[in-house]
Every structure is written in structure tokens, then in C-alpha cells.
Amino acid sequence: MGRVCVAISGGVDSAVAVHLLLKQGHAVETVHMRTWQSEDGAGECPWREDLESARSVAEFLGVPFRVVSMMSHYRNCVVDPLIGGYAGGITPNPDMLCNRHIKFGRLLENVLESGCDFLATGHYCRLKRRCGGECSLHSGLDGTKDQSYFLAAVRREVLPSLLFPIGNLTKVQVRAIARTVGLPNAGRRDSQDICFLGGKISIRDFLGRHLAASPGDIVTRDGRLLGQHRGLFRYTIGQRRGIGVPSNRDFENYVVIDRDVHHNRLVVAFESDAGNDLWTSEANLHSVNFLCAPLSGCRKLSAKTRYRDASVPVTVTFGHSGTAHVAFVRPERALAAGQTLAFYRGSRLLGGGIYESMPREPQWREPQ
After folding, report:
1. Among 35, 84, 214, 262, which residue is least crowded by beta carbons within 10 Å?
2. Do the Cβ atoms of 285 and 323 come closer than 8 Å?
3. Residues recognised as catalytic
4. What is this structure's pTM?
């Protein structure tokens, strides 16, 4: 047993985490992070609703509640790198940045400094502890809700200070517990979007407030001009719809295969013609992070190329200075620089790294 602080978001998962820890006999308190608020009155961030929901849960369960502002850190460590990444043609993952630098970084430091022994969250993942003190992080029991992928960049040394009380439960079980206990947010909807946007504004519209929308050419690989784009940050590799150029083929649209930031051009092709410009059998990683003893050499592992994707077999050759080369058994579609690959051995999350520019560059001529 110990003194546990639960990062309570206002959602049902962290609320049930508080309840379970109390049942286990822990001394529990809660903390709610303020990370963002509407900048211009547009109301995209639901921070007020989150705050009141979190406060109501703490009052209902009779545990201490406090609010800590992480707004400046969140801006510096999450929002600014997100905006800068898109401006540079890459696709950073804000949840990865938040978990490493904010939730399991600054917030954890705050919690430990306050005298708590552990920080607990409502993540669907499992932490296993061995007698010697070693901790290993594993995927959540509910495969449809597993959030271990988002912890691939967390520092290994913080694992002993963490608890994930709902990792052995399914979402259905969590909802049932919340209803049985009578938690005030038992029926609150899950957030499916970037947390600080709250589902009220798209990432493209948010970026449009911060980045100059510089129109440019939409071209094919051979340099044929098709139209004009509305700013490269509005498009993603593999995008099929909303590109804004008509197709001259029945039942087949163009797909984005490259965002050429240097020339401010969007490169497209028909999916059936895209080949290695869209599908890749290998990728290079940088900023490789280990949640286990650092690996070296060539290893056969499984990996998630994105959060929602199923695990796939890979061969990873670990290099020096946080680099790695990944070979996929089957080609993967639309991998984009800046995204994260998480690698596993069975259910254990071993770590992850960030995709560099894919080793397959579109070959096309200058327009005539």
C-alpha cells in the first residue's frame, strides 16, 4: 500500500481507477491537469466540462482534489512541436509528446514532490513488477482499447512510480463498475480526438490558425500539374478524399504520396500506380526509446505502425545514438515521417522510435 495520486481527467476511466485504488486500501488523492484553453473564444477546448466532471468525481468518492496548471509546459512541449512539425512536413503525435514530457514528466515530478509514492492514470495498459524491482509495461487486456502504444516514448526510469488500475479490465467492465458505484460521470462519452481540441475543431483547422496557408501546385510523379492545394499541412500521406482534383478513372481517386515542403508541392498518384511511393517494406527510426534494457543488433519483434493498426512482424536492427532500421514482413501503407512505431515482444512494450523520411522518395520531373 502507499499514497497514490490519480491523474483524474474527468472521464470515466480515471474515475474508476480512483474507486479501485480506494477498494485496495490505498491512501488516494487526485490531481487534474490544466493544459489548454480556448485561445480566441472559439471554444474548442472542453476544459471547463473536464474540470467540473473531475471535481464531481473526487467529491463523490471523498478524496482530496487539486488542480495543477501545465499550460506553459504543454504549449512548449506539445503544441509548439506539433505546429512546427506540420510546418516542416512531418506528422508528430501529440499524445506521445504529452505522455513523455507532461503527464509522466512534469506531472509525475509534481506528484512525487508532494509526497506521493505513485502516480496512477486511467490508461488501458498493464504494469508488471518483479521481485528484483524490474518493471515491464504490457498491452491492456482489452485489445480494442489498449493504449500501451501511446507510452512508447515514456522514460524507462519512471515505470516504478506508475500504476494503471484498469489495465486488466475491458471497457465494458469499467462502464459497469462506474454505473454500479454511481459515479457522476458514468455515462460521459469517451474523447476520441486530440485532447485539447475536444472534437469541436479539426487538427487541420487548428493548424490553419497558426500556419500560413501557402497554396501550391498539386502534381503527379511525372510533374503534370493537376491543381492547387490549400497548404501542405492540410493533407496527409495516403489521403484519398478531399484532395480537390478530379479523377479521370472510374472508381479510383488520386491518393497523396508526398508533401514536398521544399517546393511547396503536393504529389499524388492513383493508388494502383503508387507502388513504392505509398507502400514501404522498410523504415528508419530516430529518437528510439527503450522501456526495457536497451537492445542491440538485429531482433525479430512485433510492432504497431500506428495506434489503431494491428501488430505486424518486423525485423529491427538497432544502431547507435537512438537509431534503428525496421524491415516489415509485408509492405506497410502510408507511413509518414514524425509518426511513431512501437515495438513489442508478445504483450510487452519494449519501446518505440520516430519515423524518419521514408527510404522511398517520389521520382518526378519538373513541369514542362
Report:
1. 262
2. yes
3. 98, 195
4. 0.91
